[in-house]
Amino acid sequence: MISWTHGLINRLVKLADGFFLAFGTLLTAALLGHPTLLQTLLLGALGIVLYVQILAVTGGYRVERYRLGLAQVVDVAIGFVPALAAVAIAYHAFLVDPVGGIGWVGGWALVSFAAIILGRFTLVRWGVSLADSHAVLRRNVAIVGVRDRVEAALAARDQSPGSLLEVVAVFLEDEAGPLPESIGGVPVIGSVDALFQYIHKTPIDVVIVALPWESTSRINAMIERLHRIAADVIVPLDKNSFNPRFAEFAMVGGVPSLRVLYQPLKGSLGVLKRVEDIVVSAVALVLTAPVLLVAAIAIKLDSRGPVVFLQERVGFNNKSFTIYKLRTFTYDPTDDGSLGTKRHDPRVTRVGGILRRLSIDELPQLVNVLKGEMSIVGPRPHVPNMQVSGRQYYDVVREYAARYRVKPGITGWGQINGMRGGIDTVEKAARGVKLDLHYIENWSIWFDIRIMFLTVVRGLAGRDVF
Hints:
Blueprint: H1 2-32, H2 37-57, H3 69-94, H4 101-133, E1 139-145, H5 147-156, E2 165-172, E3 182-183, E4 186-191, H6 192-198, E5 206-210, H7 216-225, E6 232-234, E7 248-252, E8 255-259, H8 268-302, E9 308-314, E10 320-326, H9 350-358, H10 365-371, E11 375-377, E12 387-388, E13 391-392, H11 393-396, E14 409-411, H12 426-441, H13 445-458
Parallel strand pairs: 1-2, 1-5, 2-4, 5-6, 11-14
Antiparallel strand pairs: 3-4, 7-8, 9-10, 12-13
Helix pairs in contact: 1-2, 1-4, 2-3, 3-4, 8-9, 8-10
InterPro entries: Bact_transf (IPR003362), EPS_sugar_tfrase (IPR017475)
Family: Belongs to the bacterial sugar transferase family.
Subcellular location: Membrane
């Protein structure tokens, strides 16, 4: 029921966006004229379909984002800009008399964008506030199982203010002796049988079965008992059995299966990210060309050796590629980079130290992005057989290989969270991989824009750059 409520709200927001976009189209036609009614309807339909589909693909239709003002503006812009481009092309390509086309398209953009924003900040926000006030978005959760697994489930729950899950009751199975009054601040109501009476007074939307993963017979028996409850029943995966980071159930050839890994950024998402990479890298190369020229001259005057440093790195699907960087070390053709960079590294030249602090040495990687070997945002590319504390990453960080499921990036979630510079401990290495995987799991255009924005605002330079 609750999932349906979330879906209903998202569908209503789509309808609201479409309505306000249609209103903007008709208002523009009434004010500026030019297209016939049929042409106006076709242009408006093109804009609406593209806008809604792009927002759906990029994650713009999510209940938690409707509460955030800036996030809504960014979401609307992400969907509106491609729709605007399509409407402009269609206007000039297919209309018989495209007189005043620039003025009409510009007017349509201003009026329609303003109409959608107005709708988001009035009707949509009011609707979400109304839903919040009646608690229709909140999911009441009950946990049933044995004490140690219940405690683990409670410890892992999201207790942030915006969380839509609230654990309201615990029911213990096979508990010897008197039941505790509460666990982790949540009241213990009784045994599992008490749940069936409890739901008559308090609606339960989600039931978490907290039993040992290896006890399949007990889990199946519990699920059978819970069939009588109209609620989502969830069995948490046991991290000690296998890594469930990417796990989800799927039908494969009609067979119920557990997908334990998935291909990130496939289909339209991959196309969207590639377009982002091409546009951003091309613009950045033009803007930074003078900086690159000055840096190249300074490198040649400071020390012998080439201006551009070429090195083998590991990229998408563990495929090696040659990365381009401005040389910041003294020239040594035998250095393969596997040992990384140390604090106060004597190999860093005078000019190189400045370039590294300002991250100017990374700019040639924009060429790698244009070639499709890298992305603007992604995990930083490592050299083959990368080491930390004298041991290879693969040996000390369990999920290290998963970071190669996307293209490496010039900047990333790790870089803006303190991982810029050398990684000299196993703990830092593990934290870096954890941040990389967080990015892969939560990718969206908005996430990339956020990372690029923070990269510019904070700068890649920091106290740990050496």
